[in-house]
Every structure is written in C-alpha cells, then in structure tokens.
Amino acid sequence: MDDALKHLTAIKRLLTEHPGGLTILDIAAHLKVNRNSVAKYLEVMRISGHLDVRTVGPAKLYQLSHRLPASALLEQSSDAFLVVDERRVVQANDEAASLLGIARDKLPGMPIRKLDFLDVSYGRKRSYDLVHKNRRLHVTVYPTTFDDGGKGATLVIEDVTEQRRVERRLRLLEKAVEASSNGISIVDMRAKDQPLIYVNPAFLRMTGYTPKEALGRNCRFLQADDRDQKEIATIKKALEQGRECTVELRNYTKQGKLFWNELHLAPVKDEAGNVTHFVGVQTDISHKKR
User: Fold this and answer.
1) Is the pLDDT assigned to residue 2 strictly greater than 60?
2) What is this structure's pTM?
3) In principle, which of 51, 62, 73, 260 could form an S-S bond with 45, CB 3.0–4.6 Å?
4) Which one-letter DSSP state was computed for residue 68?
5) C-alpha distances in angstroms, 214 versus 175, 205, 236, 265, 288?
C-alpha cells in the first residue's frame, strides 16, 4: 500500500474513533505526519464527499460525512451516471448502461477509448449534446477526485431526444407567430389585472405601441375612452368562463386613430385544466366598416 492510500485509510479510521471531529493539528499529531500533508489528504476526502467540515471558534473540525456514499447515490438516481478515471470506466448505473446500449457488467473496466463518442474533460465542468444510436443525449461532466488523489470525471447523461424535438417545434412556432400578419398577444390570467406578456410585431404595427409600452398592461388601453361597447361584456364573460370568443371592437392606436379589431380569444389550460393564459388574435377589419 502506497503512503497516500495508507494515510487516507488511517485518517478514516481515526475519524471513526472520534465522531465529534478532529482538527488538522490533532490528526497530524496522531499520525505523526506534517500538517501540510494532512491538509492535502483532508481536501481530497472532502472533495470526494467523505468528510464534512464545521467551524468551532477559530478551529475547523473534520468528521466523517453522514451522507450517502457516491455508489448509493448512483444506484438511487433516475439519471444516468458514469464515473471514469483517466483510463477506464470505474462505475456506472443501470440508466447509463441503458442509454449507452451497453450491458452494465461490460462497463466497469472498459477503456475510455471504446467510448470515443463521449468527450471526457478532466479538471473542468462542461456540458454538451451528442447523438448516439439515434438518441440525442445531454452530457454534463463534473471533475472528480478519487480517494487516492487520482483525477477522474463523473458524467451525468440525460436522454433529451423528445425535449429537443419539442424545442425545435417551439422555435418553428415562434417564427410563425413572429411572421404572422395578424396581431397575436398573450395575457397572463394568473397575474393581477391580467397583463399582456407577449405581443408580436404585427400587433405593434397595428397599434403603434412599442413592446415596453404594451407589455405589463391590461389590453383595455386599446379601447381608450371608448368603453361603451357591448362586446366588452362578451369578452369579460368569456374570460370568466374560460372559453373562446370572437368579437369586433373599436380600438385606437397610440396616435389616437380608430381601427376596427376583429378579436379572437382562446384559453390556454395547464395539466389540471385551469386557465392560465388567453391568446388573442387581432385582425384589422377597418376596410370592411367603411
């Protein structure tokens, strides 16, 4: 057994015998090792999760951690974990084996070079996406220090295939909304006074307002002082009942110019069926009213 491993084992045994904790000087005196070396060993143990440190007055007390060991955390986690040193796989859980398409009993001891689709960065945290066996995976690499001071990495791997597909659809939808010739707005029904939280470029062109001037306000500002419109009651009832409606309203631009707005409102519900937002589609039909 080399000196480092021997000292790490001795420190663990010593702290087991003193559950209240010991200072660096205490440990150095017991083991007859200089305190700089003890400090180095303690830091390795702290980083690897074996130690907790607490301050009592001017002193720092080191004691064995009561947290679950890394192996137990790996087994209990629903995420895929892969622990590697600088040459091989040290440990993996069932989720990692499943995502990588490799039998779990084949992973421990497997040379890193056989997992060349993974980019293992030692010494720094980083994240990246990759495609493996038609699945898009998101990998986060965490620098890891082993008990003997050796360097390694812990990889957390997530299958984000469906998430990325949804994100692509949302980007496409966002582009379509931005390019629409109709005004489109979104109102937050959970917030006080049901403010606008989104308006597209067509809405801004139609009304003459800037995003800063429109967002955060109830859309009644578009009616100016022209509030004696029976359609307003129709809108209020639809909002209260959480249902769609279509009305024709007299609205006014920022410059005070009247325009006729065909407004269609549709509710957006959460998983529990509660209305959280309303989407409005505005069409300028002034030419039909002349």
Assistant:
1) no
2) 0.54
3) 51
4) P
5) 21, 12, 20, 18, 26
